[in-house]
Design brief:
Blueprint (H helix, E strand, L loop, with lengths): L6 H15 L3 H13 L4 H12 L7 H23 L12 H20 L6 H24 L5 H26 L5 H23 L5 H4 L5 H6 L5 H10 L5 H5 L2 H11 L1 H21 L5 H13 L8
Length: 310
């Protein structure tokens, strides 16, 4: 039986950290409303699963998971404010200045929560957290610059932007268990690439996604620019036209068929599957028991759509 991580316990720890660190009741209530609006805490769960997989039993693991989720939430908010995306999120429905201050507060609360860990491995954890956080910011910078021109550059950006956050969670949980295996970082990067490729594919089929309307460089756009067939050309013309799907194609089903005929959907699926296969080989090579290997595979791969990509 695959172990299930307690969603509510992570949420309670996050709200407790906010209550301890933020004295302004209006700001406290606002931040807790963001936490309570979340439907999953997959990054905190990855930290807990890795802690257990490597033999850890530290009672502070839940606090670590909460700190990670507070950090991820702040990054999600920064990302949405930068991209003007995900309009349904609470923080996108208020004064951007207030939302930005709230995101900065969450980031700071997360850092303070990491500092409250009494584990002898606290410094190693903090070093890893800051390393992967900066890598994710570098990946986001590359994405915002929109200057990527090759598949290799795009995969590296995806590795940094998405894979680094998965590595942050997985490696932190492992370090709290007094273990250190470089393969955890390596397969985290591969899972990040796969999850981002899946996310890019979903965005193509999402008529409300903002990334497509501003022609943000992605694997999908780079593939279509190769001009393998007329369908690819038609899609690129559409993306740069500013029209909506119904205006250009008359029917969403016709647009969907265009995506399939262009080959871009199949291409993104291949990119994702190659990365998944690499990750599976690394996970199955870990020197831990088979139950823990299956648990890692479940939370990292079968559950990968729960890793919200930036």
């Amino acid at each position: 039986m695959i172990e299930v991580v307690d969603f509510q316990s992570i949420q309670e720890q996050m709200n407790q950290a906010i209550a301890i660190n933020v004295k302004n009741t209006t700001l406290q209530d606002l931040l807790q409303s963001f936490v309570n609006s979340k439907k999953r805490f997959s990054f905190g769960q990855l930290a807990l699963v890795h802690h257990h997989a490597f033999g850890g039993k530290d009672p502070e693991a839940l606090r670590l998971a909460a700190a990670i989720e507070l950090l991820i939430l702040s990054f999600d908010m920064f990302d949405d404010l930068e991209d003007l995306d995900n309009k349904n999120e609470l923080w996108m429905q208020m004064d951007p200045a207030i939302a930005l201050n709230a995101a900065t507060t969450l980031y700071t609360v997360s850092q303070h929560t990491f500092l409250t860990l009494s584990s002898p491995f606290q410094q190693q954890i903090l070093h890893a957290v800051n390393k992967y956080a900066v890598q994710a910011m570098e990946g986001q910078h590359e994405d915002l610059q929109n200057s990527i021109s090759t598949e290799e550059e795009c995969l590296e950006m995806m590795k940094l932007k998405s894979g680094s956050l998965i590595a942050l969670a997985c490696v932190s949980g492992m370090l709290l268990a007094n273990a250190n295996n470089p393969e955890v970082e390596n397969y985290s990067y591969q899972i990040g690439i796969a999850a981002q490729a899946d996310n890019d594919l979903r965005d193509l089929f999402n008529p409300m996604k903002n990334d497509r309307s501003i022609q943000k460089k992605s694997l999908a756009i780079l593939y279509l620019q190769q001009g393998y067939n007329k369908h690819a050309h038609d899609l690129l013309t559409f993306f740069s036209s500013g029209k909506d799907i119904l205006e250009e194609f008359g029917d969403f089903k016709y647009y969907k068929q265009k995506l399939l005929n262009s080959g871009v959907a199949q291409y993104l699926n291949v990119i994702s599957q190659v990365a998944i296969n690499r990750a599976i080989r690394m996970i199955e090579g870990l020197k831990i028991n088979s139950f823990q290997i299956e648990s890692l595979k479940f939370h990292l791969i079968k559950n990968k759509t729960n890793h919200k990509e930036r």
